[in-house]
Write a structure and sequence with these properties.
The complex is a heterodimer of chains A (about 425) and B (about 120). With about 425 residues, chain A is mostly helical. Chain A has 18 helices and no strands. In chain A, α2 packs across α3 and α11 runs antiparallel to α12. With about 120 residues, chain B is an alpha+beta fold. Chain B contains three helices and six strands. A four-stranded antiparallel beta sheet of chain B has the order 2-5-1-6. In chain B, β3 and β4 form a beta hairpin. Classes of the chains: A mainly alpha (about 425), B alpha+beta (about 120). At the A-B interface, loops of A face α3 of B.
Chain lengths: ~425, ~120
């Protein structure tokens, strides 16, 4: 029993590394690598006992999987010969002659290759996300399907199609050349951040925090920092995710209701995680102009390091949002800038910025715009206007947790009348 | 590995481009195709300014019409059949084709069947 759980843990820990190396050894064929790994794991489960678990299970599994793939290839070739088929243009299954024991350094590269292949821009974003979670993360097809609210069959199909495209179009199993690395890395980080956001603030459904996705994204972020230690961009993204995620226990009540940043019990923030995030922010901000993730992480750090909401340095946060808008202009950034300015200079100053945003119309269907307006109006004592804005936000909010939050605010306003 | 690059031209975009840019197109094409031929990556290339015919066989009868089957604002204006290592190499070539700037270039991995 205990042996089984030890073996299970080994599989969990080693899966992504082994798969990455097998994909390389099998010429970039994801499907064959997965099949071979599944057979090797089955063999391990059959053969290993508590006292016979190999000292290097990773090497054992790679060897077993590779042998299995070689056997299958030989069998396929013999069958082909028996059928006296002419060799068509499609490549015969072939294995590299590499006989050397896989080294740790090569395997680090393999996981990096896997990341860049899974997040190749020739794959659709949906496929990139699914493939990354399946091959690099520890999630099964059914779990990914649940997390993204699609039927398991749809997710399975999406994965099959992505692997097929990699094979047919011959997407290289390679780390991009230095000249392209930054641009390709930006695409990888975007996938990781998308996964995190999907986990951190679910856009629909009941659960506000889909923890699995957020922790998978953090795992991927850690992996990128580990594999690309000389790059600053992954550090900024990891810092950002750690700092946001440090508030997970304080963000919602036991009943699942949303708690605003200023009302959160800061004792429930994860201090160790904040410390790790703060160290990474410093690293991400040193040595050149910061990127958008680093600036967002710096903003999150200003919230995280203060003992109380009242102590927040809103002027500094407003200045950082202005920098962020220069780096990555977006109406949502301007909305956040308006919130910071409202805190730093007063609600009227914030409202003026909101009016400009409103006039533009780009956030017409975004519930947080009227929600912020409602909050500022409430603080100015303009209750009726505030109530109207809350109702508008309530109409637009997509998830039930946010809807409940807005209902509560409306009820509060009514109680003051 | 062979890839067929289908070059879609957007005439409106081309017409809107600066004169110098328009004039450079011919030279740019010659440069890309010339270098691909020289390094042995080009299998075939061509264009069709006019003269397209479409054939359909229906109920055993052949219907021949003038022009391409589908009318579209963007039309395939030419192709290159290249032989390179992988998709990234094909993308690198596609981005040098002027059509990528004035339209788009579609990359299709080719499964070639033997001709004999």
């Amino acid at each position: 029993m205990e042996a089984a759980s030890t073996i299970e843990r080994i599989f969990q820990q080693e899966r992504a590394r082994i798969l990455a190396t097998l994909i390389r050894l099998l010429g970039g064929d994801f499907g064959r690598a997965e099949d071979a790994l599944a057979s090797a794991m089955e063999a391990g489960l059959r053969q290993w006992r508590a006292d016979t678990i190999p000292s290097n299970p990773r090497a054992w599994l790679i060897r077993a999987a590779r042998n299995k793939a070689i056997d299958d290839a030989r069998r396929a070739r013999r069958a082909e010969q028996r059928a006296q088929q002419l060799e068509l243009a499609s490549d015969p299954v072939r294995l590299p002659d590499e006989e050397t024991e896989p080294e740790d350094l090569a395997m680090l590269d393999d996981r990096l290759r896997l990341i860049f292949t899974c997040c190749h821009p020739a794959l659709s974003l949906d496929a990139q996300v699914a493939l990354s979670l399946r091959t690099l993360g520890g999630l099964g097809t059914d779990e990914i399907a649940r997390a993204f609210l699609v039927p398991v069959a749809t997710m399975a199909q999406r994965l099959v199609r992505a692997k097929q495209k990699i094979k047919v179009a011959r997407i290289p199993f390679a780390v991009p050349a230095e000249a392209e690395l930054d641009a390709r890395l930006a695409a990888v980080l975007a996938v990781v951040y998308l996964v995190f956001n999907e986990g951190y603030a679910a856009t629909s459904g009941e659960a506000l925090v889909r923890r699995d996705l957020a922790s998978e994204a953090i795992r991927l972020g850690r992996l990128l920092v580990e594999l690309l230690p000389e790059r600053r961009a992954p550090k900024g993204l990891l810092a950002l995710m750690l700092l946001h995620d440090s508030r997970r226990d304080a963000r919602a009540t036991e009943a699942g209701d949303l708690v605003l940043l200023e009302d959160q019990d800061r004792n429930r923030w994860d201090r160790a995680q904040i410390q790790e995030g703060l160290t990474l922010v410093d690293a991400a901000l040193t040595g050149g102009a910061p990127d958008a993730y680093a600036v967002q992480a710096a903003i999150a750090a200003l919230h995280a390091r203060e003992p109380s909401a009242a102590a927040t340095d809103w002027a500094q946060i407003a200045a950082l949002y202005a920098i962020l808008h220069d780096l990555a202009p977006s109406p949502v950034v301007r909305l956040n800038h308006a919130v910071a300015v409202a805190h730093a200079e007063g609600p009227e100053a914030g409202l003026r910025l909101l009016d400009a945003l409103d006039a533009e119309g780009t956030l017409r269907d975004y519930h947080l715009l009227p929600a912020v307006r409602a909050d500022l109006l409430r603080r100015l004592g303009r209750r009726e206007e505030a109530a109207a804005a809350y109702r508008r936000a309530r109409e637009l909010a997509g998830n039930t947790t946010e809807q409940r939050f807005l209902d509560a605010r409306l009820a509060e306003l009514a109680a003051h009348d | 590995m062979q890839y067929l690059l289908l070059i879609y031209n957007d005439d409106a975009k081309m017409a809107a481009a600066a004169k110098a840019e328009q004039e450079a197109v011919g030279k740019d094409y010659r440069e890309v195709t010339g270098s691909l031929i020289q390094n042995g990556q080009m299998r075939a290339t061509g264009t069709w300014p006019s003269g397209i015919t479409t054939v359909r066989v229906s109920d055993g009868k052949t219907l021949t019409t003038d022009g391409p089957f589908a009318e579209a604002r963007e039309a395939v204006g030419g192709f290159c059949l290249i032989d390179v290592a992988d998709l990234d190499a094909a993308v690198k070539i596609a981005e040098r084709i002027p059509g990528a700037k004035f339209g788009r270039v579609e990359i299709r991995p080719v499964t070639a069947y033997p001709a004999k």
